[in-house]
Amino acid sequence: MLENLYRLVRDVPDFPKPGILFRDITPLLLSPPAFRLAVDQLVEPFRSDGITKVVAIESRGFVFGAPVALALGAGLVLVRKPSKLPAATRRVEYQLEYGKDVLEVHADALTASDRVLIVDDVLATGGTAAATVWLVEQAGSQLLGLGMLLELADLGGRARVGAHRRMHSVLRYPRP
Ligand code: AMP
User: Fold this and answer.
1) What does DSSP assign to residue 146?
2) How far is CA 158 from CA 64, 144, 152, 164, 165, in A?
3) For the chain, what percent of residues have pLDDT higher than 90?
4) Model pTM score
5) In the annotation, is 97 catalytic?
6) Spatial separation of the C-alpha atoms in residues 34 and 64, rounded to whole Å
7) Would the CB of 123 count as within 6 Å of ligand 1?
8) Which neighbouring-strand residues pair with 102?
9) What distance, in Å, lies between the first and last C-alpha atoms of the chain?
């Protein structure tokens, strides 16, 4: 079953720069049964967790976060690159391999009573996910877990996010 999903992830060498093997999930989005299966697999482990908000990370995280939120009956919170959100925001700065990046969330999007699931397409080094965890916990919300369509396990993302976190990835590279 998952084999079909692996088949629909396209490997693009040297994108966006030399030496990076980009895992392109857009072929999977072209197939309704595959897209549905991917969303079902993301939702399944968290179905009974009383999730109230799904926090999706710009931009491919939005593609999966939205249907996951609908399936769980949860609200959808957008975590965005700087200066995209119109109302008052909270921000987090985090370290990239070279330089820094910033993520923002609307200040009123998360509350202390929220039970949160973070969703993104790819867990690579985990910097983006770790920064999003920080935004969620800063708001006083309870983080129930993270759902990633695809995990690049060699890059140590799990450890960077925190080994104690509940991290569910649907597809893993290198292949198990
Ligand atoms: P990271 O903060 O390193 O975990 O990765 C940040 C984002 O970069 C992820 O959400 C992915 O969307 C994207 N990304 C990083 N490496 C890859 C890759 N090899 N293939 C596809 N997307 C990637």
Assistant:
1) E
2) 20, 15, 10, 9, 8
3) 96
4) 0.98
5) yes
6) 12
7) yes
8) 93
9) 14
| 36 dihedral zone (left: phi>0; alpha: psi -120 to 50; beta) | alpha
Cβ 130 vs Cβ 100: under 8 Å: no
Structure tokens at 60: 């491919």
Which ligand 1 atom lies nearest to the CA of residue 120?
10
Q: Determine which one of 80, 93, 97, 160 is catalytic.
A: 97
60 noted as active-site residue: yes
CB of 91 within 8 A of CB of 82?
yes
Q: Name residue 70's amino acid.
A: L
pLDDT of 57 over the 80 cut = yes
Cis peptide before 86 (omega within 30 of 0): no
Residue type, 159: A
